[in-house]
Amino acid sequence: MRGTLTKPRLLALLASLALAVALLFAALAVFAAEAHAGSFDNRPPKGVLMRHDEVLQSSYAAGGSWVWKTPNGWSSVISDNFGEYEFSKQDEVPAGGRLHVRFDKPERPHFVAVNAFPRVKDSQFGGKMFAGQKRRLKSILKPVKRDGEIVKWDVFFRTNEPDRDYLKVTLGWKKEPGSHASYGQGLYGFHVETRA
After folding, report:
1. 44 with 185: CB under 8 angstroms?
2. Is the dihedral of CA 63, 64, 69, 71 positive or negative?
3. Where are the beta strands (DSSP E) in the chain?
4. How far apart are CA 123 and CA 131, in angstroms?
5. How far is Cα 104 from Cα 39, in angstroms, rounded to an integer?
6. Distance between CA atoms of 66 and 129, rounded to whole angstroms?
7. Paired strand residues for 130
8. Residue 120 CB neighbour total at 10 angstroms
9. Domain boundaries, position 126
10. Domain annotation covers residue 45
11. What is the pLDDT, as a whole number, of residue 70?
């Protein structure tokens, strides 16, 4: 009776198989919810400033406009930040170093602008406003893939010169015909200390 399974062993094998299938479906549900939230969320995606794989800062959109699908139709919001931003503690980065901002949305942005400013000034409402001559930084979009599917987008750029420590990143997505994905634009602010 060497090759046969006893009833307790068969039950244990079936229980293990059921557990493995349940874990697989749970992992797929988490992945689907993550992809769904990035595509159909009712606010612009969070921006995460990174150097290589290191997270430096994160920022929600400080202003912009956003449109998303609801069970009753399309909804929208317009958020005017009056040019004000809240900046976290600065992170030190080398001049000429490559940084990127990761956005948790699988659709490719239609518009990207990265501008560097030398300073900020106090605003009348308590936040900070970009000040001084802005300099547009060349940026490159690259997809982030998981299991062959695009799940996020990275905006790469270089901190070309010292004393351009305040970064304003603007992204925009257009409505895709036949799609129910959310779209709009968001304005993001980051603070780094660029050293020579």
Report:
1. yes
2. positive
3. 47-51, 54-59, 63-70, 73-79, 91-94, 98-103, 111-117, 119-122, 128-131, 135-137, 139-146, 149-158, 166-173, 183-195
4. 11
5. 8
6. 22
7. 120
8. 19
9. 41-195
10. yes
11. 87
Q: What is the pLDDT of residue 14?
A: 66
Query: d(Cα 158, Cα 154) in Å, to the nearest integer?
Result: 13
Give the type of residue at 18.
A
DSSP state of 15: H
Q: Which of 190, 195, 196, 185 is nearest to 50 (CA)?
A: 190
Query: Residue 138 sits in a domain of what CATH number?
Result: 2.60.40
Q: Give the pairing of strands 63-70 and 54-59.
A: unpaired
- Distances in Å between the Cα of 108 and the Cα atoms of 46, 76, 171 are 15, 20, 10
Residue with tokens 């599917």: 149
Dihedral sign of CA atoms 6, 9, 10, 11 in order: positive
pLDDT of 41-98, one tens digit each? 777 899 999 999 999 999 999 999 999 988 888 999 998 888 899 888 888 888 788 9
Report the pLDDT value the prediction gives residue 86, as an integer from 0 to 100: 87
- As a whole number of Å, the end-to-end CA separation of the chain is 77
Domain assignment present for residue 109? The answer is yes
For the chain, the domain total comes to 1
Cα 123 to chain centroid, rounded: 27
In terms of phi and psi (left: phi > 0; alpha: psi -120 to 50; beta: otherwise), the region of 3 is alpha
In a domain, 27, yes or no: no
Cβ pair 108, 141 in contact under 8 A: yes
Any domain includes 180: yes
